[in-house]
Amino acid sequence: MKLVVIDYESGNLRSVSRALESQGVTPLVIGDASEFGDADAMVLPGVGSGPSAMDALNQRNLVDPIRDYISSGRPFLGVCLGLQLLLDRTEEGDAPCLGVVPGDTKLLPAGLKVPHMGWNSVTFKDDTANRHPVLAGIPDDSFFYFVHSYYADPEHRDGVSATTEYGIPFCSIYASGNLIATQFHPEKSGPVGLKFYRNFIAMARPN
């Protein structure tokens, strides 16, 4: 299978690639949209500033190809900043984002220590039978590793598959059809994070 990890100099590419390789896939790490057409799955990692990341995506002419890829119905995973960029805008610099998921990315409330860094639990919205396939075999309230100062606030809550408490409950997993995104870093989350990647890869493999 061909799994593309988007390189736009705003992600922890090495850690993500190693995690995917541990699950039997050698990812193509590239920032060239010409490679998107025959990709079976795609990962948009991200760390740092939302406006800077959007500038980088725009400079590489990746914004429309990413939107088109998601619209194609093939599995897409956004990681950390990769979740926040899916929304309409970010409060960080009041900048436009990809506009795939209606809503805004917001700064964590005043009074909280930011960034929110370290292990925290993730609570699933649905019972086991109704969960998205990417969550198969992952226990409710599993702990994942977070590093972020902003959080995604989707307008429509149907896609919010899990939440995490840090001063407020925030969306920690967005999963709707082929579109999946996490506020945490699966590649830094031990065995449960690798299971998450394994489930995502399984979505793209032929039966």
From TrEMBL:
Assembly and interaction partners: Heterodimer of HisH and HisF.
Q: Which reaction does it catalyse?
A: L-glutamine + H2O = L-glutamate + NH4(+); 5-[(5-phospho-1-deoxy-D-ribulos-1-ylimino)methylamino]-1-(5-phospho-beta-D-ribosyl)imidazole-4-carboxamide + L-glutamine = D-erythro-1-(imidazol-4-yl)glycerol 3-phosphate + 5-amino-1-(5-phospho-beta-D-ribosyl)imidazole-4-carboxamide + L-glutamate + H(+)
- HAMAP family tied to this protein: HisH
**GO molecular function per UniProt:** glutaminase activity; imidazoleglycerol-phosphate synthase activity; lyase activity
Q: Which Gene3D superfamilies match?
A: 3.40.50.880
Keywords in alphabetical order, please.
Amino-acid biosynthesis, Glutamine amidotransferase, Histidine biosynthesis, Hydrolase, Lyase
Q: Does the keyword Isomerase apply?
A: no
The pathway to which it is assigned is:
Amino-acid biosynthesis; L-histidine biosynthesis; L-histidine from 5-phospho-alpha-D-ribose 1-diphosphate: step 5/9
What is this protein's record name? Glutamine amidotransferase domain-containing protein
Write down the PROSITE patterns for this protein, in alphabetical order. Answer: GATASE_COBBQ (PS51274), GATASE_TYPE_1 (PS51273)
Name the CDD domains for this protein: GATase1_IGP_Synthase
InterPro entries listed in its UniProt record: Class_I_gatase-like, GATASE, Imidazole-glycPsynth_HisH
Q: Tell me the ranges covered by the Glutamine amidotransferase domain, including all copies.
A: 4-200
